[in-house]
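Support reply, case 0932

Customer input (verbatim):
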Amino acid sequence: MTKNTLIKVLGLAATVIGAGMTLVTDWVNEQKMEEKIEEKVNEALAKTDEEES
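Our regenerated output:
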């Protein structure tokens, strides 16, 4: 394998890994946001229930 081929393969691998990590990071951030939203909704519902009682 020549140096040029090796450099191209490494560059392609780095690009694929970078894109994959971006997708995973986006998914994790979305999951965290959904968790925060659910927590806030539950807090608001609990507060509403307390006020009604």
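We compared this against your earlier run and they match. Two observations from our side: The chain has one helix and no strands. The CA atoms of residues 11 and 20 lie 14 Å apart. Please reopen the case if you see a mismatch on your end.
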